[in-house]
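Input.
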Amino acid sequence: MDRRTTLKWVLAAAASGPLMDRALWAAAGAPGSPASTGYGTDPNLIKNYQSGELWPLTFTPAQRRTAKALCDVIIPADEKSPSASAVGVVEFIDEWISAPYRRQRASRTVVLEGLAWIDTAARQRFGRDFADLEEAQYRALCDEICYEPKAPPALKSAANFFTEFRNLTVGGFYSTPQGREDVQFVGNTPLERFDGPPIEVLRKVGLA
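Output.
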C-alpha cells in the first residue's frame, strides 16, 4: 500500500468522528442540529486527491521551511533511506493539521505554536532561524525538548510540541514506500513460499 492510499484511509477514518458527533447531536435534539438532512456522502476512496484539494493548506513558506528542517533533524537521510522531507512528510503534516476535524485542529494549534517557539528560541540563542542552525546548535536545542518527562518545567509546552511533531513525522515517513523499505517491512508483497520466522527471531522470543 503506497502513501497516497494510506493517506486516503487516514482521511476517511478522521472524517468518521465528526459525522458520529453530528448524528449524536441530532438524535438528542441539540439546538441548531439539522433536521433530516443526512450525514453527507461517504468519502471517495478511489479518487486521487491532490494536496490542498479537500481543504486549504496551512503552512506559510516560513513555517514550511522550519518544518522541513525539523523533519530532517528527526529523520535525516542516511545510507539506507532519504530524509523525511524528501518523501513528502512536510506535505503530509501540512495536510494533517489543515483538516477540519477535532483531532487535527488540536494538532494544528500545537504544531503552529511549536514552530513559532522553535524559531524564536533559535534566534534568541544563536541569532538565526532554526532552519539556518548548524548541527551542534539544532541538536542542543532539540535535546532539551525531545524527551517530555525530563524537559524543564519552562519547556513542557515545547516538549509536547516536539512529541506531536515527531509522531507526525514518523507516521508520515513510515507510511511511504521508502519508510517501509527502511524497516524491511515485507507486508503486501507476494511470496512464492514462506518458511516461517527466521531462526534468530524464534530464539529471541524463546521459541527455539
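Residues 1-42 form one domain.
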